[in-house]
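Sequence, please.
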């Protein structure tokens, strides 16, 4: 740890996460773009950020390096889980020789958490230089090396956290947890719906998008472990409860296929981007402010404050 040193620390970001950091973790937060601007431009005209996290790669690394994966991690106030996730996944992917970089999609606005919109933002930021994404929950850690994070086939997305393997969700149409999607496929599906504020159902709607695009979900085969020992699910539901509240007409609207919103209607700002090091592993933090159309999705704020303010204007 000591040899990595402690570089400039952005305490505003740390305090914004509302966590106190112990001395066991070395963090380095350095600005990666013009501070004070309304939005940081997406990556373009550059090589993918890979390589320094692949120190112990097998001989077949050159077979995997033909493709580069952006690991997109929707995030808010889950720092202790991130501290476990980054070293674990990096070592796991290094054993497979998968060229990748982790992007933490940190939602900093006042609205309810919107996992799907964050993934859309991460895709917009990375798609010019990465040819597939991993939509990855921060609390789900793969344990079995038979789970290959490989470039998805022409058939469609590769669902690593298959229903028969996931520790909690086992229904046939489940595509949450960890889903690998090619950039051309994600673009063709218009990304994910932007209507899902709060927890749940955005993956089920995305499954319908996959099907409607003429694609199908593929899953790992011949896995020798089961739902009890394929993943470590590190979320503590007593310490951090899911936001399952339904308000306004949210329940009715979010049970239907969304044909209006997606990548093409996404509205957001990225006020800052930071490089961060956890246990010597470099990742990128995107601070993201999502915009909510109160008239379309008033459930982005179940308190009703935003809707009331809008009606008074």
């Amino acid at each position: 740890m000591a040899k990595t040193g402690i570089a400039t620390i952005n305490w505003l970001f740390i305090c914004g996460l509302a966590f106190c950091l112990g001395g066991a973790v070395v963090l380095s937060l350095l600005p990666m773009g013009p501070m004070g601007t309304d939005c940081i431009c997406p990556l373009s005209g550059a090589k993918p950020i890979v390589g320094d996290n692949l120190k112990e790669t097998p001989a077949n690394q050159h077979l995997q390096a033909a493709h580069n994966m952006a690991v997109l991690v929707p995030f808010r106030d889950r720092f202790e889980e991130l501290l476990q996730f980054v070293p674990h996944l990096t070592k796991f992917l290094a054993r497979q020789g998968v060229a990748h970089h982790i992007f933490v999609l940190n939602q900093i606005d006042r609205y309810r958490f919107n996992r799907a919109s964050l993934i859309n933002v991460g895709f917009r930021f990375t798609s010019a230089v990465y040819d597939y994404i991993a939509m990855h929950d921060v609390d789900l850690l793969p344990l079995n090396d038979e789970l290959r994070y490989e470039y998805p086939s022409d058939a469609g997305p590769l669902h690593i956290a298959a229903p028969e393997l996931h520790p909690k969700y086992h229904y046939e149409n489940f595509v949450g947890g960890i889903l690998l999607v090619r950039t051309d496929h994600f673009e063709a599906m218009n990304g994910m719906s932007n209507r899902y504020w709060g927890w749940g159902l955005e993956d089920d709607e995305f499954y319908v998008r996959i099907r409607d695009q003429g694609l199908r979900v593929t899953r790992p085969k011949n896995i020798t472990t089961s739902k009890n020992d394929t993943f470590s699910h590190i979320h503590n539901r007593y310490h951090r409860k899911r936001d399952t509240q339904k308000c306004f007409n949210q329940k009715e609207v979010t049970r239907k296929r969304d044909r209006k919103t997606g990548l093409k209607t996404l509205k957001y700002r990225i006020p800052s981007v930071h490089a961060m090091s956890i246990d010597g592993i470099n990742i990128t933090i995107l601070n993201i402010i999502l915009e909510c159309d109160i008239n379309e999705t008033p459930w982005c704020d179940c308190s009703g404050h935003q809707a009331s303010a809008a009606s008074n204007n």
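The longest helix spans residues 79-96.
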